[in-house]
Design goal:
With 160 residues, the protein is an alpha/beta fold. The chain has one domain: 3-Layer(aba) Sandwich (Rossmann fold). It has 6 helices and 5 strands, in the order αβαβαβαβαβα. Strands 2-1-3-4-5 form a 5-stranded parallel sheet, with helices on both faces. Strand 3, helix 4 and strand 4 form a beta-alpha-beta unit. Helix 4 packs parallel to helix 5. The N and C termini lie far apart (34 Å). The N terminus is likely disordered.
């Protein structure tokens, strides 16, 4: 499990979990919408709590079946997508990311792929992420400060 209080302290947050890295202190992320897709309810709860503590609005889904419905209707500012999620058409997170990045309406949506697939396996996640157009890859388990930092970095970059 991720210790949110400890992670916030490590990321430069004060004892109440407020603030954060100096790089991001001048930019408000309050109300930015994050869509998180993962089939593990514990991961969804952890990611939701850590991002909501930073002021983000978070919507979680545990299936890829309706991901495009959610993207069209909630219009997230960023998507965090588990790679290894079941889909009735046999698609995975890589396929979904490719479809998002190939769609002119959604190609600019920042996508973070994450998974417990490790580097050095037959399928190297970071190389596959590059080929899918993903903006970042985070391996599980992850530190809250890593996830929060990458989310803020991509939102700052996409706002320019």
């Amino acid at each position: 499990m991720v210790d949110l209080k400890k992670s916030n302290q490590n990321s430069g947050a004060n004892k109440n979990g407020e603030g954060g890295d100096a790089l991001f202190c001048k930019h408000s992320f309050e109300g930015k919408k994050i869509l998180v897709a993962d089939d593990n309810p514990q991961i969804l709860a952890i990611v939701k709590e850590m991002l909501e503590n930073e002021g983000f609005k978070v919507v979680t889904i545990d299936s890829l079946e309706d991901i495009f419905f959610f993207i069209r209707n909630i219009k997230p500012d960023l998507l965090i997508l588990d790679i290894m999620m079941p889909h009735k058409e046999g698609l995975d997170g890589f396929d979904i990311c490719r479809r998002i990045k190939d769609d002119p309406q959604h190609k600019d949506l920042p996508v973070i792929l994450f998974s417990s697939i490790t580097e050095g396996t037959a399928t190297t996640p970071s190389k596959l992420c590059t080929s899918t157009g993903a903006d970042a890859y985070i391996s599980k388990p992850f530190k809250a400060s890593t996830m929060i930092g990458k989310v803020k970095e991509l939102l700052l970059y996409s706002a320019k």
